[in-house]
Design goal:
Elements (H helix, E strand, L loop, with lengths): L3 E9 L7 H14 L4 E10 L1 H12 L7 E5 L11 E9 H11 L3 H16 L8 H16 L9 H13 L11 E6 L4 E5 L12 H11 L7 E7 L10 H10 L5 E5 L6 E5 H4 L6 H4 L3
Parallel strand pairs: 1-2, 2-4, 7-8
Antiparallel strand pairs: 3-4, 5-6, 5-7, 8-9
Length: 289
């Protein structure tokens, strides 16, 4: 089976700073969701409304800016080509910003949705031919976006506030080492956890697992978890223990971001679940034959 790899030719023609990583991860995730294999490349360009109007007029015959334009090249491998050149997706920052404000969401989420929309067009999906095709395409792009592991939600100021509150609740009569953890879910909720000790030391539970178990016990699934934050009493950055890392690998997407702070929050480590525990043991290993 061929492995999937996706490269991006990214060009930002606006003065607005944009995280290129978002577009790269969105492309890879979309192709993976569509069960595509092989090597792909896609050109992604961000323009302002003036340039988008010019492109829309020149290539589509519509004298007005639009949110996204797609110029497919090929969805199949060409002879003697090492990769599949999908073509180009052009996004309009000005319209994306307005749509994001209208939906009261992070503009990066709007970018991701429209990029997914453009990629689906490349693979033959269309919302103009019929109502049934429109419903199919819009439903698919929402599913792909919903399963994209990218943090559109976490408010770092609120995260820090919640971490301090969680840390203050720690029950640590023996070590006096207070740890707070916060799990953020897609509904925008911040779930607090703290370490809880016991005179029988083996019964103690770390803050990360307390927060995660709380979320799972309330009916959330791993797909609902956006990020996890952690703070310790140390002046150094204290990363999760091995047991917590394994629990995180089981209950969170491996690409989920993890934000770790020292007690004064003047030191930080931003990583992922996979970054904390590469080659984690999973259900695939457990049931492998």
């Amino acid at each position: 089976m061929n492995k999937l790899s996706a490269n991006i030719d990214f060009l930002n023609k606006t003065r607005v700073k944009v995280d290129e990583k978002l577009f790269s991860e969105t492309i890879t995730h979309t192709l993976s969701y569509l069960k595509k294999e092989g090597q792909y490349v896609l050109s992604v360009t961000i323009v302002n409304s003036k340039e988008m109007q010019k492109l829309n007029r020149e290539y589509k015959g519509k004298d007005a800016p639009t949110d996204v334009l797609t110029f497919p090249y090929s969805s199949e491998k060409q002879e003697d080509e090492p990769f599949i050149d999908l073509g180009s997706v052009i996004l309009c920052h000005d319209i994306c910003k307005k749509e994001a404000e209208k939906r009261n969401e992070n503009i990066l989420k709007t970018y991701a949705l429209l990029l997914i929309h453009g990629i689906l067009h490349i693979f033959g999906y269309d919302h103009h031919r019929s109502k049934s095709e429109e419903k199919e395409m819009f439903s698919l792009q929402e599913k792909i976006l919903d399963t994209l592991c990218y943090d559109f939600i976490t408010d770092m100021k609120l995260m820090k506030k919640c971490l301090k509150e969680a840390q203050s609740r720690a029950y640590t009569p023996y070590s006096h080492f207070n740890v707070g953890a916060v799990v953020v879910t897609k509904d925008g909720k911040y779930h607090l956890g703290c370490n809880i000790e016991n005179s029988a030391y083996s019964v103690a539970c770390c803050a990360e697992r307390v927060a995660l178990f709380k979320v799972i016990s309330q009916g959330y699934k791993k797909e609902d978890i956006v990020s996890l934050g952690c703070i310790t009493s140390s002046s150094n950055i204290g990363t999760p223990c091995g047991v917590c890392r394994q629990a995180m690998a089981e209950l969170m997407n491996l690409k989920c971001p993890v934000y770790i702070f020292n007690n004064d929050m003047d030191k930080k480590l931003f990583t992922t679940v996979e970054g904390l525990l590469p080659y984690s043991f999973s259900s695939e290993d457990l049931f492998a034959k």
